[in-house]
């Protein structure tokens, strides 16, 4: 299965509150192999799913944390909610506290948050947030 499908599967289980540990472990192992091919939006869903389900997969969080450091955060234009969910997932599940601090500082740096907030000012981005 491609990374997008793997991430979607664990996200669906987490949303339903189904903590299927063998499934999460298998998906985590597969994502450790293909995490560089995954889109950040998909990885964000997977990281959130692991953290929200309280299923630790230390190796997955370590390799994805390394990618965050290598790429100096998430790509420009990443929705603010994804930035915050990713940072939360690392605080909830990354065991290496030094790496956790490094990753969260990159994700929630003033520059990263400023860029995410500036993206909200672009035409059309607030329309979906208005009450109907």
Short description:
With 132 residues, the chain is mainly α.
Structure description:
The termini are far apart. The protein is mostly helical and 132 residues long. Helix content is 68%, strand content 0%. The chain has helices spanning 3-16, 21-34, 40-52, 58-70, 80-93, 97-107, 110-120.
Note the main attributes of this structure:
globular, mainly alpha, 132 residues, 68% helix
Mean pLDDT: 89
Low-confidence stretches: 127-132
Summarize the helix and strand pattern as letters: HHHHHHH
The count of β-strands is 0
Q: What distance separates the N and C termini? A: 38 Å
**Largest sheet data:** none
What structural class results from the helix and strand content? mainly alpha
Q: Which radius of gyration do the C-alpha atoms yield?
A: 15 Å
- Helical fraction equals 55-70%
Topology record:
Layout: H1 3-16, H2 21-34, H3 40-52, H4 58-70, H5 80-93, H6 97-107, H7 110-120
Helix pairs in contact: 1-2, 1-3, 2-4, 3-5, 4-6, 5-6
